[in-house]
Write a structure and sequence with these properties.
178 residues
């Protein structure tokens, strides 16, 4: 019996999370809303959809090698971003220093650049490589956005999140039919 490929659940979690964050960051549907409730809702979306689904996918990639020759690489990518979203969700729930999170985004950017280079080396340019490039831009934007709190940078980050969501559909739809 062949194991089921878990990529669809991890990619759906990514899609749902970045679309929700992107819409909030550009200001769609949040006018007049309670900021604390919006923040708490985003935290739960980040933890469960962005975090749990991608960590689950990562574990399956490692245990069952369902990603073929790229199982370890994809498992590492899903694992990092799953843990990334869990941390972001916890930050939104518990609070903390945004500047420290900006430092974490810098560390995440360095690792994501490695993921991006590997995707291009392996010929995984579209859509994975391009998605990772946009994630690089997002992380590069989030560093000064969280350090300075400038609304224009937050809106740019929101546009990056929406672009990641749209590009992720090109990964998600084929994964649904594997």
């Amino acid at each position: 019996m062949l194991p089921v490929n878990p990529e669809a659940i991890g990619l759906f979690g990514l899609f749902a999370t970045v679309i929700c964050f992107g819409l909030e960051q550009v200001g769609v549907g949040v006018k007049g809303g309670d900021p604390q409730k919006i923040t708490r809702s985003l935290a739960y979306i980040a933890i469960f959809f962005g975090g749990v689904t991608q960590v689950f996918t990562s574990v399956c990639m490692y245990l069952f090698s369902v990603g073929g020759d790229h199982s370890i690489y994809l498992g590492t990518v899903f694992g990092f971003f799953g843990l990334f979203w869990m941390l972001v969700g916890t930050f939104f729930l518990k609070g903390g220093d945004k500047k420290v999170m900006a430092h974490f985004f810098l560390c995440g950017l360095l690792l994501c650049l490695v993921f991006t280079v590997r995707a291009f080396q392996d010929g995984l340019v579209w859509p994975l490589g391009i998605d990772l490039v946009v994630i690089d831009v997002l992380l590069l934007t989030l560093i000064p956005a969280w350090y300075t709190g400038k609304p224009a940078l937050t809106k740019l980050a929101g546009l990056c999140n929406l672009a990641i969501g749209i590009i992720s559909l090109f990964l998600l739809v084929p994964a649904l039919f594997l």
